[in-house]
Amino acid sequence: xxxxxxxxxxxxxxxxxxxxxxxxxxxxxxxxxxxxxxxxxxxxxxxxxxxxxxxxxxxxxxxxxxxxxxxxxxxxxxxxxxxxxxxxxxxxxxxxxxxxxxxxxxxxxxxxxxxxxxxxxxxxxxxxxxxxxxxxxxxxxxxxxxxxxxxxxxxxxxxxxxxxxxxxxxxxxxxxxxxxxxxxxxxxxxxxxxxxxxxxxxxxxxxxxxxxxxxxxxxxxxxxxxxxxxxxxxxxxxxxxxxxxxxxxxxxxxxxxxxxxxxxxxxxx
Length: 269
What we know:
The chain is of the alpha/beta class. The protein has one domain (3-143, 168-194, 232-264): Spore Coat Polysaccharide Biosynthesis Protein SpsA, Chain A (Alpha-Beta Complex), CATH 3.90.550. 42% of the residues lie in helices and 18% in strands. It contains eleven helices and nine strands. A hairpin with a 2-residue loop joins strand 2 and strand 3. It starts with 6 loop residues before the first strand and ends with a helix.
């Protein structure tokens, strides 16, 4: 792999603090510090991304507490450690701050600290596919029907498109230069991320009507958003339904524990 293929990783690990139900249950300073099968959620994420081929540096956005720094130092080798930054008002604002700190020399993979089921193979496949699209920003999506079959009864935000319903994966790829502008615009969409129709409504009434009628394809949505923002955007399908499982509540925590136990039984993956 040539230096031109290098990229940075940003891990968004802003937390709701010890008042979060998961943090309160385990008596830790924040949700991502909760233990799952002997390791913290954040530690699992950091350990996964630290082994990615082509990784230049990891930037961690997290509260300014020693517990987070301990995880950073434990799981990310010194030569791969970038900055540790305090969170801004929300994930999108935090991302903008982190991108400005990194600069615009390399593309950036963005993951979240509450995604403990991440596997290196998914991330490397996502990076490969995202590079090929040559878009300013790429979002990872999972097939919603596959997610429902894998995790019946689990509630995940579902985006209904004509070709396929999808769930988000909290995986993002940003071009070295053009992606910065997309990140800044993302903050205006952030508060509606659990209400897909409101995001689509920002693209105009014709697009909204097509979405509500079930006639808007995923590619049509990314094309409409690309026109609205003035830069090319794209979506990449992540094959593993586990990619749609971030840990927002105690039910998600139990689900993640179940998956990790299954992996252990299958050979400690």
